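User: Hi! I have a protein structure encoded as tokens and I'd like to know what sequence might fold into it. I'm fairly new to this, so please keep things simple.
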């Protein structure tokens, strides 16, 4: 089976990136990580990617240099762009070059709680179930077609940290499944 090449975009901790790297290192997993790109030179995830010798790049943040991101993705022959805690909006001119090839993980059951602080939004709304979603990225934020979702209960004593941690465990599994599904469809 041909492995698809992933380009992972991060802004911070990079735990979803690390989970994807781990999956890609498993025998028979149908994807490999070709490069990691960040808008934040202090991102903890950047060091983690460098340690495992994945080609890693910092791009200009203000304004975000989407042309450079495109160039790096092309140079590394990327098939699928995975946003993993990438906290910048990719505009339509970039997305039109990567139509149906950019996916994102979001910490809620979309279409509920789009945008920033989704876990806090869920707690404030008083819902008893939230979760995570992997979806295609379109110019409208958090509104593209849903690929995988997992529900996560909100427990009586949850705060933002405890809830975020419980959701994150599921994000890692959900992202792995989404990438696997897309890769298998292309084989
Ligand atoms: C994750 O919870 C991800 O869902 C969220 O940021 C965190 C990044 O963690 N993304 C968004 O809220 C995007 N709107 P990570 O850097 O450890 O993967």
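Assistant: Happy to help. Inverse folding works backwards from shape to sequence: for each of the 187 positions I chose a residue that suits the local structure. Here it is:
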């Amino acid at each position: 089976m041909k492995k698809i090449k992933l380009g992972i975009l991060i802004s911070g901790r990079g735990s979803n990136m690390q989970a994807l790297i781990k999956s890609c290192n498993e025998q028979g997993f149908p994807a490999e990580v070709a490069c990691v790109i960040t808008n934040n030179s202090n991102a903890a995830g950047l060091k983690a990617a460098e340690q495992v010798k994945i080609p890693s790049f910092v791009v200009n943040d203000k304004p975000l240099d989407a042309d450079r991101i495109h160039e790096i993705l092309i140079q590394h022959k990327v098939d699928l762009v995975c946003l993993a805690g990438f906290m910048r909006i990719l505009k339509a001119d970039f997305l039109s070059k990567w139509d149906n090839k950019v996916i994102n993980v979001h910490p809620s059951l979309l279409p509920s709680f789009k945008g920033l602080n989704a876990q806090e939004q869920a707690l404030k709304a008083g819902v008893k179930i939230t979760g995570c979603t992997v979806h295609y990225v379109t110019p409208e934020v958090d509104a593209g077609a849903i690929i995988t979702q997992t529900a996560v209960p909100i427990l009586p004593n949850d705060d933002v940290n405890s809830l975020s941690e419980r959701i994150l465990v599921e994000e890692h599994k959900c992202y792995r499944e989404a990438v696997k599904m897309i890769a298998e469809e292309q084989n």
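A useful reference point when you look it over: Helices lie at 15-25, 44-51, 66-75, 92-97, 118-125, 160-185. Feel free to ask if any position seems puzzling.
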